[in-house]
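Example for tutorial group B:
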């Protein structure tokens, strides 16, 4: 069987596995929610039970995380932002320090790409239909000193316009992201929250669900570091100036319909 047929077939199995896993109560619910059900507070909490990754995928979660880190180190931060799935597989296969992605690792990756995250409270639109989708460098502009890319045309124009209107204290903190880049962000987050899918998807969209793949970008304040990805960004002068620009829209407002946290730094471009 060639790889594409294998992928097609394993997609079905993988999605089945994850959905069945979720439906069949194979999921582990948050232990702190396991409290006696004799108070109103308890019943409110029970409505919001978090959904966890099925136990079958715990070990590939850890091993895929390690491999993605090695692949990123191998190609460099900038190139990794736009690396395709096929190139990721190629690199794994050809560099013994990384190693070929195993059948179970691929099944896990495909599940996380093709499943329906509304089962755990993420209601964003599916943006990327195929896991093998490629991003062409020709369509992109690499923003100097950022390690990130934006699409030429409308997105680059908006970014340049913002720079002009707000000033050089704004920086691009994340631009175009391939399936592999979004996979890495999601896997890292999922690992850090102990496989809690509900919690992970509040701050990072699952790999097929990010608007970064088609044009959205994140901006921040120079020297503000990690705080650029917290609600503290909304208190900066840069944000106030940005809010006044009529051509700029925020994707994830407070209580957005997608179930994503408030992200004042995320610029909607499409
Ligand atoms: Zn963003």
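The residue assignment follows.
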């Amino acid at each position: 069987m060639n790889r594409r047929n294998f992928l097609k077939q394993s997609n079905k199995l993988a999605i089945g596995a994850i959905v069945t896993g979720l439906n069949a109560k194979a999921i582990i619910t948050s232990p702190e929610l396991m409290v006696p059900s004799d108070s109103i507070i308890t019943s409110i909490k029970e409505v919001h039970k978090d959904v966890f990754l099925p136990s079958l995928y715990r070990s590939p979660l850890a091993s895929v995380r390690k491999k993605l880190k090695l692949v990123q180190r191998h190609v460099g931060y900038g190139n990794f932002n736009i690396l395709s799935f096929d190139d990721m597989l190629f690199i794994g296969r050809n560099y013994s320090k990384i190693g070929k992605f195993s059948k179970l690792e691929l099944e896990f990756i495909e599940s996380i790409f093709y499943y329906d995250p509304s089962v755990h409270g993420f209601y964003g639109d599916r943006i990327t239909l195929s896991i093998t989708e490629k991003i062409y460098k020709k369509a992109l502009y690499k923003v100097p000193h950022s390690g990130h890319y934006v699409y030429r045309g409308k997105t680059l124009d908006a970014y340049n316009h913002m720079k002009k209107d707000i000033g050089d204290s704004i920086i691009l903190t994340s631009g175009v992201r391939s399936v592999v880049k979004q996979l890495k962000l999601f896997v890292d987050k999922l690992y850090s929250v102990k496989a809690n899918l509900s919690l992970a998807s509040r701050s990072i969209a699952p790999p097929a669900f990010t608007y970064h793949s088609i044009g959205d970008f994140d901006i921040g304040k120079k020297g503000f570091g990690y705080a650029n990805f917290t609600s503290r960004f909304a208190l900066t002068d840069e944000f106030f100036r940005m809010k006044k620009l009529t051509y700029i829209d925020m994707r994830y407002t407070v209580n957005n319909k997608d179930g994503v946290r408030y992200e004042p730094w995320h610029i909607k471009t499409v």
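Residues 174, 212, 216, 218, 266 surround zinc ion (CB under 6 Å). Compare this with the pattern of hydrophobic and polar residues in the output above.
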